[in-house]
Amino acid sequence: MEWETVIGLEVHVQLSTRSKLFSGTSTAFGAEPNTQANIYDLAMPGTLPVLNGEALRMAVRFGLAIGAEISRQSIFDRKNYFYPDLPKGYQTSQLDYPTVGRGSIVIPLDGGGEKRIGVTRAHMEEDAGKSLHEAFTDGSGIDLNRAGTPLLEIVSEPDLRSAKEAVAYLKKLHSIVRYLDISDGDMSQGSMRCDANVSIRPMGASEFGTRTEIKNINSFRFVEKAINFEARRQRELLEDGGEITQETRLYDSTRDETRPMRGKEVANDYRYFPEPDLLPVVIDDKLIEQIRTELPELPDARRQRFAAEYGLSPYDADVLTANREMADYFERVATACGDAKLAANWVSVELQALLNRENLEIADSPISTANLATLIQRIKDGTISGKIAKTVFEQLASGDAGVDEIIEQQGLRQVTDAGEIEKLIDQVIAENAPQAQQFRNGKQQVLGYLVGQAMKLSKGKANPAQVNQLLRDKLES
Amino acid sequence: MLRLNVTELSAELSRGAFSSVELVRACLERIQRRNPSLNAFISICEESALAEAAAADAARAAGDSKPLLGIPLAHKDIFCTRGLATTCGSRMLRDFVPPYDAGVVERLRGAGAVLIGKTNMDEFAMGSSNETSFFGPARNPHDPGRVPGGSSGGSAAAVAGGLCPMATGTDTGGSIRQPASFCGITGFKPSYGRVSRWGMIAFASSLDQAGTLTRSAADAALMMRAMAGLDPRDSTSVDRPVEDYASELERPLRGLRVGVPAPHFAEGLSPGVERGIRAALAELEKAGAELIDIDLPNNHLSVPAYYVVAPAEASANLSRYDGVRYGHRCENPVDLDDLYTRSRSEGFGDEVKRRILVGTYALSAGYYDAYYRKAQRIRRLIRRDFTEAFTKVDVIAGPTSPHVAFPHGAKADPVEMYLEDIFTIAVNLAGLPGISVPAGFEDGLPFGLQIIGPDFGEARLLNVAHQFQQLTDWHRRLPADAAGEAS
What we know:
The structure holds 2 protein chains of 2 kinds. By secondary structure, chain A is an alpha+beta fold. Chain A folds into 3 domains: 3-290, no CATH class; 297-409, no CATH class; 418-476, Arc Repressor Mutant, subunit A (Orthogonal Bundle), CATH 1.10.10.410. Helix content of chain A is 40%, strand content 18%. Chain A is built from 15 helices and 15 strands. Chain A has helices at residues 53-65, 163-180, 220-239, 285-293, 299-310, 314-321, 324-337, 340-358, 369-380, 386-398, 403-409, 418-431, 433-440, 446-457, 464-476, and strands at 3-14, 73-74, 77-80, 90-93, 103-108, 114-126, 130-132, 141-143, 150-156, 192-202, 212-217, 248-252, 257-260, 273-274, 281-282. In chain A, a hairpin with a 5-residue loop joins strand 5 (103-108) and strand 6 (114-126). The relative contact order of chain A is 0.10. Chain B starts with 5 loop residues before the first helix and ends in a 16-residue tail after the last helix. Chain B has a single domain, classed as Amidase signature (AS) domain (Amidase signature (AS) enzymes), CATH 3.90.1300. In chain B, helix 2 (20-38) runs antiparallel to helix 3 (46-61), helix 9 packs across helix 11 and helix 9 packs across helix 12. Chain B is of the alpha/beta class. The A-B interface holds A 39, 42-51, 78, 80, 82, 84, 87-90, 142, 268-269, 271-273, 276-279 and B 79-80, 86, 88, 93, 96, 98-100, 102, 197-202, 204-206, 232-236, 312-313, 315-316, 318-320, 322, 324-326, 336, 340, 360, 363-365, 368, 372.
């Protein structure tokens, strides 16, 4: 039987506010345990929450970016459960009246084309602290630095039909929150975490199958693997006549499998009720309009503009707009050097490779936009060849020297003087007499070899087109 | 000196009749003598009180004339005090010393009041007799065999017993007004949001409100002037100007429309109390007020609605006491569940456990609609009843409690105890201000007249209470030994 996978994602995005959702404590990452927890974060008696206005504006910004309804009045609720890293014994979240209502996100499809994925809602809530089990032999440690950090939980409709679509959705979401500057979206640091609801059904069926929820998947790759594993597990189970149990599962990346969480890890009844310590959050039209005017250009709009304005291929436009910093970088290089296609190539191929190799973010690129623009100009004005440019590029990455400095100091300027090239050619013909004879006898393909020898002799500095032409002229004369 | 009220003490201090140090010392001596039998205080801060009093005297000498300057004050042990144990009447917090002051504590300190100690209370403010306190019951200064009421029983006993001229309390369902009624003093509960809840240990967040226990309405006006106001740390505190309550006190009663709610004179009201309350209403009428019969049709639903909403909120508010970060922690827990279970079983008393269980049940899947949601709906109906009534009347008046103080141990059945607050609870559910003023005695025990005002009608309410106290002297009849004679 043919099966269809149905996926809905719940994505927790950590909002990059300076302070926590309900207290003034810093949210900076990496401090000593429990140095960023004040009396409210510790749930000392009598302490009360005060909503962080910046977190609220970030949630609204996200809502507007995905064309969602913004609730004029949203309500915080208490979600009750006991856990040592949850100091109050309840998490303050939003149940029935989230700040962000229905919206949608468009994802690119593998075979080309696009698909619109519904977003059911996005609600604000506070993060829990961390339990530290490793460093303690007798008991566990609790670090409350993260407790109270603002999260936006973005819940999708069950509109995704494959692990690939799920990853595309997640990447688009990542790109949107980065563009909006509301989160660093770093999955490895937990700034973006994903739960996947997965079910399968016979192809063409209209009813959903029983779903399982896979918790806390922390990379794009694992999202794909976890969903694929889970869909396969469900298919095998059903085809063997079994039944799917609605349950919460964990993805184990070392064994590449999902398995049920232990009963204790799953709280069943959270006894939600409205948080009496906070008033309903009222958002008026004026605030919404103000936030709307502050929205940056978003990835979809930018991609379309790049294609139209710079004549980029859909693929290049997609790659270059996936992340805001990358797009900004490209745009600065393209404007400065005046050749968008060359700029696109250098940014998406050479620079990207360099960053991957050095494990760097574009923001930390060792090559400035000005240097890359100059480099491209030197290719265009014939000062250096494309090949030499790669050498210069590598040196730009490892030192402080500028493009022209490197070219001059190392004598990399392209040789275009016909006399000098002729000298090279004479030497090559003399040293490769048999091959030269072969060409004269009509074996055209030998020319490439001879050109290569000449280039090598010039250490790559000779203009290849000139070498080619002059060599041919000489041999045919 | 110990019988004088705050207004009088303030005048005497300005006149130089005695110093704040002398006054504080007299209170401390009185506490030493009487507290062993009244058990009104959980902790006494003699040293810091004398230091604060000396500072107040110095400030006065330098020209400071704030009305509360140098006046001894007791805080209910539910208000966090920096560096001073704050127990909430519970074993759970027996050794808890907060590193911060409650908003109310800050403001009264700023007003120059001298903190002399922290008063006994029902555990986590859950009770109407002060009998649920981990530190043992406080006793009624009018009859030590009887309860002082609760939960602010220690504060009421301290003020009535001459241990201290003013005290703070909190009122979630009547916890200021009922003990004031039982102890023959003035207890004022402001509108929800008028006084900051920051640093006040939560019982039921949407109902809790800080207020005052004093020997006169004029005293309450002075305390309220200092306590009220916006606190940005409490999102439910309101941003509206604080009136000069003292300057409104002299407004005459002529033309005042007083609503008399039929349900507050229903079956169960003791005949002596009813006679006294009717007489008190007649006094108001004589002074030119108009009595108007009103109905509060949903009043009978207030106790059941309250005993869903308050325990529900409490069940979450008390989850933080888990033995992990502060408070009682059991010995040698074997695992996490054991830590939670034993720390909480040992740390909380029976009434607190009962309410946590009730609240947890009311919020549980499948019961939420039947209990919590329905209770919230009733709450809106009750509020609507009041809104409707206040279109016809300026204030509403009736008994604070159906009867006078009862003997210790007389109400063993929790539901019987819950019915104690039958006239006071609706006021909390509606978020309104209410005051209890002494209105007579039955069998030698005092009872109070409750006056209820509309939202933020504090000034008018204090004015009416003060005018009543100009017409009567019930509030002057402190227990015989409160004069300071040996008991």
